[in-house]
Design brief:
Layout (H helix, E strand, L loop, with lengths): L6 E7 L3 H12 L6 E8 L5 H11 L3 E6 L4 H11 L4 E4 L5 E2 L3 H11 L3 E11 L16 H7 L12 E3 H6 L11 H10 L3 E13 L5 H4 L1 H17 L20 H5 L4 H13 L9 H11 L7 H10 L3 H11 L8
């Protein structure tokens, strides 16, 4: 077997032909060159497979697996199993890495052996490739990461470099936390290593309506909230109840599962906080979760603004139902 590379780059692709070529080229043109590029084509049907095969034929660092669709978590775990390098770099198939990204991350991790997961800051792109206003920065000290961990992912997932054995020892990505599999991994990693990001913006991160954070906002918010409860529950060395699960329980079951009153209410509140500013989400299941949360005495900051927003959008019945729930009046949404 050839000498193992210093870095394994892992990427899962599903129907991203429009952005795939510049994404892959941004990796192949990195200043740091000693890497293998492991790619799973996860059942693409839009021409992505042909693009990847052509690119793989031109650069031996690309190792391509083409298979039926199994989802992101399964793909990342398969890539993790195949990686030969002591370091892993994540990449998403619609983003663009700055040429110095790998060199800067590898140098930092060599100088800081206590850092197990290292992200970078980003510039954001829209679907057409135009730069969006400069986003907020990810924290670039482990102490700040620790303080902000409860609020959500402390690093940008496709920007991270990780120590391979660390991620394997943690069991990789967990299937039950799909759509928030990265946050769940960061929480488990935070118990055994330090996490931070470089202040430099070394990734062009594409924002689109098809992103998991947009397309699956409700299940993502639910999974992230349960991941935090699981993190708190395992603080004293107790094993997680989700290690061998493929799916998360219903929200109403969480008080019993965690043996903790208020666990279900916590998850509902997190979903409400995540979705209350989205007019589109308020037309779907998130609205019923919001109403249920209010009826159970949860309440939420900004309820009046949400009622007014529904009214302005012509959703008068929903505005009335939410107002009555806030006032303590029970009305069905059917």
């Amino acid at each position: 077997m050839a000498t193992a590379p210093a870095l394994s780059v892992i990427m899962s692709v599903y129907n991203n032909a429009a952005h795939l070529y510049p994404c892959v080229q941004s990796i192949l043109q990195q200043h740091f060159e000693d890497f293998e590029f492991l790619i799973v084509d996860d059942g693409s049907t839009d021409g992505s497979t042909e693009i990847l095969r052509a690119l793989a034929a031109e650069d031996p660092r690309i190792q391509l697996i083409v298979r039926e669709n199994k989802g992101l978590v399964a793909s990342l775990n398969a890539l993790l199993a195949d990686a030969r390098a002591p370091l892993l770099a994540r990449m998403d198939s619609d983003d663009i890495a700055m040429p110095e990204r790998f060199a800067m991350q590898i140098a930092y991790m060599a100088a800081h052996p206590d850092i197990g997961i290292l992200g970078t800051n980003t510039h954001d792109l829209d679907e057409t490739g135009l730069l969006l206003p400069v986003p907020a920065t990810y924290p670039f000290s482990p102490d700040e990461v620790g303080r902000l961990l409860e609020l959500g992912p402390p690093v940008c997932h496709p920007s991270v470099m990780m120590r391979t054995q660390l991620v394997r020892d943690l069991g990789g990505y967990r299937a039950a936390f799909r759509h928030a599999e990265d946050y769940d991994l960061w929480l488990r990693a935070a118990r055994v290593t330090q996490i931070t990001s470089l202040p430099e913006r070394l990734l062009l991160y594409r924002r689109s309506a098809q992103q998991i954070s947009q397309k699956y906002a409700i299940p993502q918010a639910k999974a992230a909230a349960i991941a935090w409860l699981d993190y708190e529950n395992t603080e004293n060395g107790q094993p997680s109840v989700f290690n061998d699960c493929n799916d998360l329980p219903e929200i109403d079951e969480l008080d019993h599962i965690f043996q903790r009153e208020g666990a279900s209410a916590f998850v509902r509140r997190r979903i409400v906080e995540r979705t209350r500013y989205s007019n589109d989400l308020l037309l779907g299941p998130a609205f019923q979760i919001m109403v249920d949360h209010v009826r159970r005495g949860g309440g939420f900051t900004g309820s009046l603004r949400t009622i007014l927003r529904l009214g302005r959008k012509g959703r008068l019945i929903r505005a009335m139902i939410l107002a009555m729930a806030v006032a303590g009046v029970f009305v069905t949404t059917s």
